[in-house]
């Protein structure tokens, strides 16, 4: 689904962002899980998994109901068209590619 909302030719930008987010969450995740276990009165070690399940379910529902793939495809086309026009103008010498 991520590749469907990413403009063609710019996948590296989005996937590098997701890689950074993944590495950050792997660092913060154990800290949050430990805090949840410490905050639970019984000290139940399975409590973080319930939290993660609820978080995953909410994320899934938001992706299914809030991401409009048709609109994303139209925005991708407009973005790529604008980028190609900008490159064509800069190659003509009329507008510098650094100005916009």
UniProtKB/TrEMBL annotation:
Q: Which UniProt keywords apply?
A: Amino-acid transport, Autophagy, Membrane, Transmembrane, Transmembrane helix, Transport, Vacuole
**According to its record, how does it sit in the membrane?**
Multi-pass membrane protein
Under the heading SUPFAM superfamilies, the entry gives:
MFS general substrate transporter (SSF103473)
Asked if the Swiss-Prot or TrEMBL record annotates the protein with the keyword Transit peptide, the reply is no
> One Pfam match, by short name?
ATG22
Localization, UniProt: Vacuole membrane
Any idea what this protein is called?
Answer: Autophagy-related protein
User: Origin, by domain of life?
Assistant: Eukaryota
Q: Where are the transmembrane segments?
A: 12-37, 49-67
- The answer on whether this UniProt entry bears the keyword ATP-binding reads no
> Could you tell me what this protein does?
Vacuolar effluxer which mediate the efflux of amino acids resulting from autophagic degradation. The release of autophagic amino acids allows the maintenance of protein synthesis and viability during nitrogen starvation.
- Stated family: Belongs to the ATG22 family.
């Amino acid at each position: 689904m991520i590749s469907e909302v990413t403009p063609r030719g710019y996948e590296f930008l989005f996937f590098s962002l997701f890689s950074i987010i993944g590495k950050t969450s792997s660092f913060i995740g154990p800290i949050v899980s430990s805090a949840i276990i410490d905050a639970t009165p019984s000290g139940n070690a399975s409590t973080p998994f319930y939290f993660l399940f609820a978080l995953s379910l909410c994320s899934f529902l938001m992706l299914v109901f809030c991401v409009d793939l048709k609109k994303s495809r139209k925005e991708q086309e407009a973005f790529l068209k604008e980028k190609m026009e900008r490159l064509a103008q800069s190659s003509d010498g009329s507008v510098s590619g650094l100005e916009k």
